[in-house]
Amino acid sequence: MSTELNQLKIINGLEAIHSFIVFPEDLNYAGTLFGGKVLAEMDLAAAKATRRLLYGTGCDGAVTASLDKVDFKKPAHLGDIIELKASIIELGRTSIKIYVHVSKENQFGEIETICNATFIFVSLKSGQPCPHLCILANNKNQLHNL
Length: 146
Ligand SMILES: CC(C)(COP(=O)(O)OP(=O)(O)OC[C@H]1O[C@@H](n2cnc3c(N)ncnc32)[C@H](O)[C@@H]1OP(=O)(O)O)[C@@H](O)C(=O)NCCC(=O)NCCS
Fold this sequence. Notes:
8 strands, alpha+beta, binds coenzyme A, Thiol Ester Dehydrase, Chain A, elongated, 146 residues
């Protein structure tokens, strides 16, 4: 435990911003942005935040373990800018909870939320769950999980 505490990485908020413009190949056959494309980009945004978290921890990387229910509130259209913001919100021993918010910006600069979801990633080393030894600065209670 004391060796592990020496290696603690204290995180003071960690976010990743990810964006793309809706191209013709991203559309479904109703002519709006395909939901599967949004889900893949959300997973990428969460992966970016997770990767930054894991720098210097000795873990090889992390995999997506789960994501919660996703409700698509608004369609997006050709040429819209889609912006995804991933924030690390909770840390377990090997699990990493990431909130991802997705918005669209249309040709007039109007911005609306499309959806959001919470992902759980698990940090790995040699294919097995690996303690990341990271804690959020605002949650020292997490120490008892280590
Ligand atoms: C995710 C995975 C590594 C978990 O392996 P495991 O041996 O079941 O892990 P453990 O039971 O030791 O749990 C490890 C951690 O993951 C969490 N976890 C595991 N499965 C979970 C799930 N479905 N949802 C949320 N958390 C989960 C546990 O709560 C635990 O968290 P903690 O260390 O912070 O307490 C394994 O199931 C896996 O490799 N899945 C495939 C991942 C993948 O390929 N994703 C890409 C999509 S195809």
